[in-house]
Specification:
This protein is mostly helical. Helix content is 50%, strand content 6%. The chain has 5 helices and 3 strands, in the order H-E-E-H-H-E-H-H. The protein has a 3-stranded parallel β-sheet with strand order 1-3-2, with no helix packed on it. The longest helix is centred in the middle third of the chain and has 21 residues. The chain is globular and about 35 Å long.
């Protein structure tokens, strides 16, 4: 199961989202228990449709949190261009290469948007619009 929107994010950011066990030493951990952890549980990690739904739900959560918490928005902005470590992916940019969708892709996308736009409300509007079209 594939999702065009997440495929675009994977192609752009997949090389920066690693599995915790093979991540570069200076990677920022974004798994559960961290500031950036995805609070939406994935009940069946082998179900690709559920993975897509959970990541898109994370984007909704992230959008609300960015809107409500300027300090968190600053922390997300600081992730721009950084390597991220989770349990999901492997530093690959294609599902054909064994990569998996991860909420880290959405975090890196949001970090880029926060650097490109002066207004947090612009970033929130872009993220919300992308969700409607995904």
């Amino acid at each position: 199961m594939q999702n065009e929107y997440l495929d675009e994010l994977l192609a752009k950011y997949g090389h920066l989202v690693w599995n915790k066990w093979n991540a570069p030493e200076d990677a920022t951990y974004i798994g559960r228990g961290s500031l950036y952890g995805n609070p939406i549980p994935l009940t069946n990690p082998k179900d690709p449709q559920e993975r897509i739904e959970v990541i898109l739900e994370f984007q909704r959560y992230l959008t609300r949190r960015l809107q409500d918490d300027a300090i968190f928005a600053g922390a997300v902005k600081s992730l721009k261009g950084r390597d991220l470590a989770c349990y999901c992916s492997n530093g690959k940019s294609s599902l054909d290469d064994g990569a998996r969708y991860c909420h880290g892709l959405v975090l890196l996308h949001a970090a880029d948007l926060l650097h490109l736009h002066d207004s947090l409300s612009e970033v929130v509007a872009i993220l919300e619009n992308e969700l409607k079209n995904s």
